[in-house]
Write a structure and sequence with these properties.
There is one protein chain. The protein is of the alpha+beta class. Helices cover 29% and strands 28% of the residues. The chain contains twelve helices and 18 strands. The strands form four sheets. It has a seven-stranded antiparallel sheet. Strand 3 and strand 4 form a beta hairpin.
């Protein structure tokens, strides 16, 4: 489970900003958190803010760290570290390090992992584990210096250190070289963290293809049953979801297409999702008709992607990061999906959901504790600030957050300066 994530000098975040998933002393909503080790950990967190406030940028920081851990061991010498995106609106920040810090629990062990990097080199990297409140160093790395290893580190040292290029993470390189003591920490990024900054058209299509394959290959699996039940439960008019194998003659390939490319495309689009709707005659049900999923509404098509990743998160105990969770969905459906993480009989693997949204109606529901709600806003210099609702003075349990937020009393709302625009629109 995720406990804390810190971002510094990344995109619009100039200063050090932190999201904390640990429960505060606020009472109520006991299903919204779990007791784990010595911590009470929240299942969900929501981020609000105006357009271009930094919400998406903060969530992309999760993706940047995930990308580096999973891919940096394959970086070539002198390759630019792609996620190096420092704050651009202050000249002092342009050449400073981007810094990420994350605390998480993997396989019942609590870890703290910190990295700082510039355009072509990792500046510092540190991994520690915890035994109760006792912090135990696994390794500490600083640019152009020998790596310092803690007493709890077991595995190759000097050889792997020499193999690790300046632009590669030691964590990634060491796991590649079978250092088992680091596997649990590494697996948090590969097996538990799932980041979807925005469910764009391409991402949605890839996910639909993935779930079509799952439905086709085992229509009676736990996933298939739950996926069907979810789609049919949300007032979509769908009574059943299945996947059918597509025929090769449906595709028109150029004559000169290489056979290996053709094979990969045929495999990718091997299955297509079909939805079934009831057909009536004189008010009586007579049959069901199959539709291509492309004929469904935008909201229903979005559910095929979002519903799948939520079911997988609940089944596997993922930390799910999603931007614009409410895209094309009715607020009641959004609320239902969020509350799946707050139901102990469903969320048995302690899955977590962190998402950004503009759906203010979620603040009027009795869904979140005040320490689960976060706001992002930009200052006059273009730098984003992240702050928690429960830290705002004057907030009580009965405070109507939706009304306060919409009237600007909580900050993080757009300031529309329309005077010049209105004058220009009235000019000949």
């Amino acid at each position: 489970m995720l406990l804390k994530f810190v971002v510094e000098n990344f995109r619009s975040f100039k200063g050090c900003m932190e999201i904390d998933l640990l429960k505060t002393n606020i009472k109520g909503h006991s299903n919204n958190y779990c007791e784990l080790k010595n911590d009470s950990v929240l299942y969900t967190s929501v981020i609000y803010g105006s357009n271009a406030s930094g919400k998406s940028g903060f969530l992309r920081a999760f993706q940047a760290l995930e990308y580096l851990v999973m891919n940096s061991s394959n970086f070539k010498p002198d390759k630019v570290i792609a996620p190096y995106e420092p704050f651009l609106l202050d000249e002092d920040s342009l050449n400073k390090s981007v810094r990420f810090e994350i605390e998480f629990i993997s396989n019942d062990i609590k870890y703290e992992y910190i990295i700082a990097f510039k355009r072509k080199a990792i500046e510092t990297e540190e991994l520690s584990s915890f035994n109760g409140n006792y912090k135990s160093l696994l390794f500490y790395r600083e640019k152009d210096k020998d790596i310092k290893f803690g007493d709890s580190y077991r595995g190759g040292k000097k050889l792997i250190e020499r193999l690790t290029l300046p632009n590669q993470l030691f964590l990634s390189k060491a796991v590649e070289n079978n250092v088992e003591v680091l596997l649990d920490a590494y697996r948090f990024f590969t097996n538990k963290l799932r980041v979807f900054p925005i469910l764009e058209g391409g991402t949605e299509e890839d996910l639909k293809r993935l779930y079509a394959r799952k439905l086709a290959e085992d229509s009676k699996s736990n996933f298939s049953r739950k996926f069907n039940a979810l789609i049919c439960a949300l007032d979509t008019g769908i009574t059943q979801v299945s996947a059918e194998e597509t025929k090769e003659e449906m595709f028109k390939f150029p004559d000169n297409i290489p056979e290996d490319v053709k094979g990969r495309l045929l495999d990718k689009f091997k299955y297509d999702i079909k939805t079934y709707h009831k057909v009536y005659k004189n008010g009586e049900l007579i049959t069901q008709k199959a539709f291509d999923v492309k004929d469904e509404s935008a909201g229903t098509k979005n559910l095929f992607a979002l519903g799948g990743i939520i079911i997988e998160a609940l089944e596997q105990g993922h930390v799910l990061i999603v931007d614009e969770l409410e895209k094309n969905l009715h607020p009641e459906i959004t609320t239902f999906l969020i509350n799946l993480f707050h139901r102990p009989e469903i969320n048995r693997k302690n899955a977590q959901l962190i998402f950004a949204t503009h759906d203010v109606s979620q603040l009027s529901h009795d869904t979140f504790r005040r320490d689960q709600v976060w706001f992002v806003e930009k200052d006059e210099f273009g730098a984003s600030t992240l702050f928690r609702c429960s830290d705002i003075q004057g907030i009580r349990n009965d405070t109507p957050l939706d009304k306060w937020y919409m009237t600007g009393r909580l900050g993080a709302t757009p300031i529309i300066q329309d005077e010049n625009f209105l004058v220009e629109m009235q000019e000949d």
